[in-house]
């Protein structure tokens, strides 16, 4: 049930995320009739823009980034809900003005509206804004006010704890929506349905039957315009600590007793807690990092990372990470979970591979036929399907086996798939926390990568750059899985 009326206050409304994701998501929710009956989007920005100028800017961006084509009729309706508001993040008076502005909306609603604060700004401003929100009493009603915070949530475990404590001074945990947009992806959510809505897979979902799990999030893009942010962040913080560990949780979690948000979040924390911590002297054994040099991506010449804008010519920031994790619990004893992610890789492809164990004995051994491993491949993007790979008899007079595939194509059954941000913003408008990260999840995830982070911090990698743009990453990433007789799928 959508909470109404609601005022959505976007800090950083002229930024990249707002233009590519937030406004398109709100617009698509609007045209599908999913926005609250009474709503206002108050777009905050530093510059002295007129409403008209800002709305034109949003319209141009919608034309480029909206999932559904924009029509003049829908735009006319939608734009009436947007107000631009000049605001300085670090000035107390700006928050007083904001208070008055919010009161004005409430007057029109005829009651105190719900407030959804969206912090679409760099991580360094979260504490400033949160303090000001508190001091100016902007979020005075715990039943009605919520805050959405973008990742990265802190830059290590200590700073995440600090931030959680600070937010706790203004907001109850139930009011805090820490976004990890991977959890809003249709195919990631489908893991829950697939695992717990069927009786045929769950009995095989353990160390007795599964040989290894692989999670790959490969990107074609480089750092684009985010050089200075990325230099400080790197792939471990940007992707592994959040997106990849969250996917891992979806694959590895125990069946939740219900779909209640606390229950699902508890089961995910259990997974994070059970991930074996890598001791400092073993980091190089379990984790690999890399940085792209120049190359060719998708037929186009690509610069090396160190030549990108805002990047130091001797940068040590990693743009690729592969890690082998183990989970110390009954279900997953000794099953390696290989995760990898990189920028400027050969192709954009995110997918999960569940590889099943070989048969203990083979009926076909005397025919000296090679049996391919049974695999379940869950394609997250751009393909959105689930493939089961198994052996079958090749039609013909002799008994020859060949690997075949059974495919469920998510996209074919539902072309009108919402963007991750639509799903997550709608959930926030409804007050559903299930797909958002709780404080303990974030802290635990930082703990999982802590020794890797500490070991790499300040280390000069003389081998950087060590993979070509347009490849599948550095050689050591292959060695990491091959040592155990596996290979990246
Ligand atoms: C973001 C990272 O969280 O996710 C980016 O900061 C990355 O570096 C992006 O490119 C990937 O998201 P998607 O949805 O394009 O796979």
Structure report:
With about 500 residues, the chain is of the alpha/beta class. It contains 14 helices and 18 strands. An 8-stranded mixed sheet has the order 8-12-13-7-14-15-16-17, sandwiched between helices. It has a 6-stranded parallel sheet with strand order 3-2-1-4-5-6. A hairpin with a 3-residue loop joins strand 15 and strand 16. Helix 8 crosses helix 13 and helix 9 packs parallel to helix 13. The longest helix has 26 residues. It is globular. The structure holds 6-O-phosphono-beta-D-glucopyranose. 6-O-phosphono-beta-D-glucopyranose (BG6) binds next to loops.
Average pLDDT number: 95
Instruction: Profile the largest sheet.
Output: 8 strands, mixed
User: How far is it from the N-terminal to the C-terminal residue, by CA?
Assistant: 42 Å
What value does the Rg take, in angstroms? 24 Å
Ligand list? 6-O-phosphono-beta-D-glucopyranose
Quaternary structure of the protein: single chain
Helical fraction: 25-40%
Number of strands: 18
Residue fraction in strands: 15-25%
Which residue ranges are poorly predicted, with pLDDT under 50 across at least 5 consecutive positions?
A: none
């Amino acid at each position: 049930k959508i909470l109404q009326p609601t005022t959505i206050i976007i800090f950083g409304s002229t930024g990249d995320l707002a233009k590519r994701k937030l406004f398109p998501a709100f617009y698509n929710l609007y045209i599908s009739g999913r926005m609250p009956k009474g709503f206002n989007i108050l777009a905050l920005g530093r510059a002295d823009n007129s409403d008209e100028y800002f709305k034109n800017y949003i319209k141009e961006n919608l034309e480029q980034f909206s999932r559904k084509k924009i029509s003049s009729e829908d735009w006319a309706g939608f734009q009436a809900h947007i107000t631009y508001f000049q605001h300085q993040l670090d000035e107390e008076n700006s928050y007083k003005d904001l208070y008055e502005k919010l009161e004005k909306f409430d007057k029109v609603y005829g009651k105190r509206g719900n407030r959804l604060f969206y912090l679409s700004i760099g991580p360094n401003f979260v504490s400033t804004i949160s303090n000001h929100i508190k001091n100016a009493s902007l979020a005075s009603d715990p039943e009605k006010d919520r805050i959405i915070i973008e990742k990265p949530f802190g830059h290590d475990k200590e700073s995440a704890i600090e931030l959680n404590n600070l937010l706790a001074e203004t907001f109850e945990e139930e009011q805090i929506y820490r976004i990890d947009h991977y959890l809003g992806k249709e195919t990631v959510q489908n893991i829950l349905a697939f695992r717990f809505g069927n009786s045929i897979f769950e009995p095989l979902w353990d160390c007795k039957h599964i040989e290894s799990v692989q999670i790959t999030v490969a990107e074609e893009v480089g750092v684009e315009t985010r050089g200075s942010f990325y230099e400080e962040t790197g792939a471990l913080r940007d992707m592994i600590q959040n997106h990849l560990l969250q996917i891992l949780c979806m694959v590895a979690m125990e069946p939740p007793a219900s779909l209640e948000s606390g229950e699902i979040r508890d089961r995910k924390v259990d997974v994070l807690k059970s991930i074996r911590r890598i001791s400092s002297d073993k980091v190089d054994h379990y984790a690999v990092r890399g940085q792209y040099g120049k190359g060719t991506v998708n037929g186009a010449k690509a610069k090396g990372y160190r030549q990108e804008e805002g990047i130091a010519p001797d940068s040590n920031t990693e743009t690729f990470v592969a890690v082998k994790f183990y989970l110390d619990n009954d279900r997953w004893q000794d099953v390696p979970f290989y995760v990898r992610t990189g920028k400027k890789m050969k192709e954009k492809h995110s997918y999960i591979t569940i590889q099943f164990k070989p048969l203990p004995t083979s009926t076909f051994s005397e025919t000296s036929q090679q049996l391919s491993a049974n695999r379940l491949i869950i394609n997250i993007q751009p393909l959105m399907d689930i493939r089961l790979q198994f052996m079958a008899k090749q039609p013909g007079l002799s008994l020859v086996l060949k690997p075949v595939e059974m495919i469920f194509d998510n996209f074919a059954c539902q072309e009108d798939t919402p963007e991750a941000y639509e799903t997550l913003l709608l959930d926030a408008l409804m007050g559903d926390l299930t797909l958002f990260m709780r404080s303990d999840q974030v802290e635990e995830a930082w703990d999982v990568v802590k020794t890797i982070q500490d070991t790499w911090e300040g280390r000069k990698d003389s081998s950087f750059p060590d993979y070509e743009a347009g490849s599948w990453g550095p050689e050591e990433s292959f060695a990491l899985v091959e040592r155990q007789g596996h290979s990246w799928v």
